[in-house]
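Q: Hi! First time doing this. I have a protein sequence and I read that you can turn it into a structure. Is that right? Here it is:
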Amino acid sequence: HAVSASKRAACAQRALTFQTNRNVGTALTASVYAKALRIHSSARKDKTTGQIMDLMSSDTQRIVNLGQSLH
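A: Yes, that's right. Below is the predicted 3D structure, encoded as C-alpha cells:
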C-alpha cells in the first residue's frame, strides 16, 4: 500500500522528536550525575547522596516528559 507523503512526514517527525527527547534526557542525566558528584558534604548533611540523586533524576525525567508533552 502506498503511504501518503503527509503520513511519512508525520512518522519522520515523531522519530526525530523521540530521538531529540532521548538525547536531551541523556545529556540532562549526565549533567545531574556530574553535579551530584560536586555537591559539598555540608550541603547534603540532611540527605544521603542516594536521596539527592533520586530527587535530581526525577526532576530530569519531568523535564524530558515536559518536552514530550509540548510536542
